[in-house]
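Support case: user asked for a sample of complex input and structure output to validate their parser. Sending the pair below.
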Amino acid sequence: MREHRSTGHPRNAWYALAASTEVGDRPFGSRALATPIVLFRAGDGSVVALGDRDAHRPHPLSLGRVEGDTIVSGYSGFAYDRTGACVRVPSQAQVPYGARVPSYPVLEEGGLVWVWLGEPSLAGRRPPVATPWLTDSAWETFGGQWETAADVGLLHDNFADITHVAVVDPVISPPVLSGVAPALEVEITETTVHFHRDWPAAPVPEWQAKLTDVAHDAAFPQREEGAFLAPGLWADRWDVLVPDEQGGPQSFRFTHAVTPVEDGRTRHIWRVSRNFAPGAEVTDVLRPIFESYYLKVREILETMQQVIDRDGYGDDVNVAADAAALQVRRILRRLVADEGWQPSRRTGRD
Amino acid sequence: MTTQPIVREFEADLTIVEAVESATDVLTLTLCAGDGSALPPWTPGAHVDLVLGPDLVRQYSLCGSPADSGRWRVGVLRTPDSRGGSKAVHELAAGGTVRVRGPRNHFPMVASPRYLFIAGGIGITPMLPMIAEAEASGADWRLVYGGRSRSSMAFVDELEAYGDKVTLLPQDESGFPDLDALLGTPEPGTLVYTCGPTGLLDAVEAGCAAWPAGSLHLERFSAKAAEPAEGGDQGFELVLQRSGLTLAVPADKSVFEVCRAAGVSVVGSCLEGVCGTCETEIIEGEVDHRDSILNDEEKESNEFMMICVSRCRGDRLTLDL
């Protein structure tokens, strides 16, 4: 039997370190896989990712300033170009030989800044997953981002099974979720897991009925989909199959970019996109509903992490609904094993 | 209402963009989605099933680039002794479609500063993407590639670019690879990857006996001859923890068959312990591993088993199903 512990975190993956809007004129300090990273925009507007530690003294470059295509340390005044090479020091004409900070491949996609912290030569060989709905005008998107004091593995488990939604937040939950779940259908590939359930016809939640013209007591078939697309990305959806004569299908897409900050801490960028009821007014109604739900999830996952930190991983009882979560763990374990290092084994965590 | 989950692999009819004979008896197929959409991602060493008929499923390594999410490439050798799989593939033509399932990977490329690749014949296919990544990462690598004759060796043109890192050994010109010279001195830190005919793999396995554990990675085309259990197979009790079921596995049925018959969704493909699709986590029980995928360390750890062929040594086996 396998020991129960964290699966570890693959480095060879694209992780979203920031929303595009977070990276402006000033450097943005972030952290992923226990590595400090600074993001900034070069003169042409493209994002640069460098190690967030001045090569001269242990001071974060993110506390410095951007000058054209360089970032300048707020302590030593050392300036670094987009490759991480030190190009200027205030105290002497000669730049110290070999002075540099690490640089990382970056992509901007769907309003998110994705960084590759693994083997650099693989960055171009592992295409990032396209998220066209985040920018497509047929979808209206809002969201938020924060850090959760829980290991990314707990976030994966959470997204892999939504049957807890009705328990955690009966208000946001589609009423049908409180019944017995229909069979979960899981589709796997080498590195992805998709799942879906076709739920029987049921009303939409009260808040959703209010936003559209559908009757609160009318019943519509609903479909749930979840997809673990990469170690740093989930894309889920919920479709209410409203007939065209009553306004047509109403779909939500939920995008979760998850980045292990370090063991036990995760950056979570969430986006909710919809293809119905457009407009800022509706968004203003929806935002607090979803934000309050995701905050509840954060609180619960943080509590779970505290239990693990105190009492270890334990032998959780798995049920049929965990089929997708177990496939995700299997993939993550293998990706970590391929990188040739062992998952971390902190005391009290095995 | 049933709440048993159904787990299956990605499966689709893909369009054959190109079908070319890349060497004597080797057909290279390039496949893409009918609607041009992205295919599932994969990593070097992965393979897919070509579903050629109701009972005709064959595994072929992906040998294109993982960076190209629009196209998959496989190279298929026509084998005279095959049960018709490779013959059916060789009848495929550009413009047609073929049913594909997967990908999955039981020959993954583990990061290392040094690699020794030993390929026999069509066993070159999983090595092509591995070599490309080893080269790109700046790893120190060598390929020894043997085949019956130069004209039978596929993808030689693509390997030319790597210069003297590649040693081509057409058997009719140079004889068999000198495995004693290649493997005689264990090199800690070097990973050995090999794929090809059974004779070559058995010889490489023997040659690596003195190498550090975990050095050798091999992929077999066909099942390794399993040693029969003393006194024949025995029946045992099978507990499926997540499903909350207890089933009886008779001597003449596999764990896979018993699960299927009970309506428990298990995925399987080759059903002879070669492809790794049915890998399942063991919770309790001592397993008699009979597959050709797990290495000795993995078998020893008793964490996973291939339920299509492996059995229980005791009278009770508990699985995470």
